[in-house]
Structure formats: C-alpha cells, structure tokens
Amino acid sequence: MIESLISFSLRNRFLVLLIAAGMFAWGIFSVSVNKIDAIPDLSENQVIVFTEWTGRSPQIIEDQVTYPLVTNLQGLPEVKYVRGSSMFGMSFVYVIFKDDTEVYWARERVLERLNYATRLLPEGVTPTLGPDGTGVGHILWYTLDAPGMDLGEQRALQDWYVKFALQNAPGVSEIASFGGFQKQYQVTLNPNKLTYYDLSAQAVIQSIRTNNNETGGRKFEMSDIGYIIKTSGYLKSIEEIENIPVKTVNATAVTVADVASVQMTGETRLGIFDLDGQGEVVGGIVVMRYGENADEVITGVKRKMEEVAKGFPEGVKFNIVYDRSELIQESISSIKTTLIEEMIVVSLVVIVFLFHWRSAVSIIIQIPITIAASFILLNSFGITSNIMSLTGIALAIGVIVDNGIIMAENSYKNLSTRFAELNPETKK
Fold this sequence. Notes:
The structure is a single chain. The chain is α+β, with helices and mostly antiparallel strands and 428 residues long. It folds into 3 domains: 2-38 and 328-427, Multidrug efflux transporter AcrB transmembrane fold (Up-down Bundle); 44-133, Multidrug efflux transporter AcrB pore domain (Alpha-Beta Plaits, 2-Layer Sandwich), CATH 3.30.70; 183-266, Multidrug efflux transporter AcrB TolC docking domain, DN and DC subdomains (2-Layer Sandwich), CATH 3.30.2090.10. It is 50% helix and 21% strand. The strands form 5 sheets. The protein has a 4-stranded antiparallel β-sheet with strand order 2-3-1-4. Strand 10 and strand 11 (252-255) form a beta hairpin. Helix 3 packs across helix 4, helix 12 runs antiparallel to helix 14 (387-422) and helix 13 crosses helix 14. The chain is elongated. The two termini are 35 Å apart. The model has no long low-confidence stretch (mean pLDDT 85).
C-alpha cells in the first residue's frame, strides 16, 4: 500500500503540492483561531450545587441538606459519581459527569433533578448551581485601591457596581467578590427585657419582617386623573427599625428599641483578605466560562475595566494582583522562540550532512507544513495552545526531521542500487 501511495505521489506531483499547500493554509488559519491558555484544563467535567443555610452546624447541614441532595442526584445519565461536602452554614455537592458529556446538557439534567429534590429540604433552603467554569477558570484577580473609603463602602461599590459591569464582558461566568464588610442592620435582643415584656425572639423577628414590606392598593380616578394607591414600608434607617411596635401593654406600644439595640454593622465573616501584609482589601475574582479563550477573555475584561473606572469616585482605581495573560504571553513566546530556533538548527544540520540542497529543502519544508497541520487536530479535539501542547509539537520536530532524513537516505540507496543494476559497466 505504501509503495502504491509513493507511486501515486510521484505520478501526481502537482496534486500532492496542491494538497500540501491547502493543508498549510488551513493550518495557518487554525493557528489564528486556536484558543490560547497557559496551562491545560485537566479538571473533571463537573456541576457544583451550592446550598446555604445560615447558622446551622456541619452535622445538621449534612443530615438535612447534603444527604438528600446526594442521594437524589445519583442515577443521572452520564454521571460517574456524586460527592458531598458539608461545612458551617454551607453545603457543596459535586456531580461528576463523563469527560465527553456536554457541560450545558449536564447542567440542565442537574437542574431538572433539583426541582424535585428541593421539596425534601427544610423550608427556605434553596440549592443553586455553581458557575459554569472549571478548576482553572480563575484567570484574573483584582482589588480596589480606594483611599479614604472604609471596607464596607468598598464592598458595596464592588457588589453593586463593579461586579455587574464586569459580568457583561464576553466569556465571563462569574465575578466572585471577596474582602470587606457586607453592610446589614443588626438587631441584638436583650433576654431580660424579653422576659419582662413576655416576648419571644420570633415575635420580634416577625414584627420586623411584617413592617419591612410594601403593598399595593387599587387605582381610582378623580377629575379624569388616575391615581395608584400604595404603601411604602421598606425600612431605610436604624430609627425606623427601633420604632417598630412589637406589643401593646396597657395601651402603650412596646417597640424594638425597648427590647433590643439596633446598629449598622457588617455580616459575620469567617476570614479576611490581606494584600502583601499592608492590610485588608476588597476585590473580585474573574471566573472564565467553560471552553472560552483565556487570552481573549482577559483582554475583554481589561477593556471593560477601563469603562468601569470612569464611573469611580475620585481617587479609586483597579489594582490587578493576578493576571494569567502575563503567564500566557511568556509561555507562548518561549515556545515560539524554541520552535524557531529548532527549525533553524535542524535546517542547518540537514544541509551540512546531506550537502544536497534539493534533499534538504524536501526535508525542511515538512517542518512548517506539519506544525501548521497539527493545529488542525488541536482545534478538532478542543485542545488549547498551552505549555504542554506546544512543547509536544516542539519535541515532534526531531521525529519529523528523522523521518525525512531516513526517507531521503533510503531513496538514494534504492536509486544507486537500481542505477548499478541498469548500468553494470559503471559499477565495474
């Protein structure tokens, strides 16, 4: 078969050259569209189910949240196994699918099963799907350089302005906020006063919830003008919470201020985020969506940051603390330099040892064509240009050249033998 292929190639040289040129052009196009990253994504094909139940111990979370979810998520199609993890106030369930399963199809199957599993959980507990990213999806970390703003104000700026704006960047799955304080009204009950007024903690909580609400009325017309009736009842200050009545004793209202103290504070934290030992900071983590081009996503996020920074208060700016694009550019540049150096060295070695320019050209021309064609396969299998894949291509150059030299040497040997057989007088 190989002899037939060689014979066909020799008889149709123009067709072979045309095919080689076409593969080279296709390969160049594949190089331009191939996704770029620093490291290969070897993480498992998983869907994360996150459930929060504030204030509950890990054992309660395990028994009433994690266990029901794990048992009900088992048996999904294409699932390899299901893992569960419980901690204080939080539950994580990892549904691991087979490697060839389409990730968004997997998320749909998990979401369908959650519609049933949610009924088995305690009231008010709602599981949610994690971002459609991978274990290596954290492509950029940033902090807010905001002198003069406290940590609560910085976190509010991050959560209500920066986060929503950066999530619109192409390829971004999630902006995970960290650091600072999430502002909240905190009501601290006095147990002695509750006993004195014969009140329970649940009665105070219910009174605050009831008074923190808006209701709509009817629409009526007067003098050919329509009016909409509504009551505005959202709590907007500490004083409004303190004045909420909880109970009436002898025609006197017992308010929240009589049984508790109200203050503006931050949500209880389990840790802090410190930068270079200089103190606490507020920032976010950019999580890349599954299957996106890391280099393009980072470029898009930085472009969006420039737009967002225009709306910052005076003196506030972004401080990028981790940027994978630097590693990507250094890795790709290093591999490209190595490839070019290898091609030059191999070309010189072939010319020196063969000392025949036509044979040398036939071997050297294989290198760029083969490298370009390899990117066709990389795109077909969804492999990015990273340290591992490009290093493999660099190592393969030696194999390509060895093959060319062996074929050239074998051709010369066979030609000399045939020439000797056809011209016995020359041999003598």
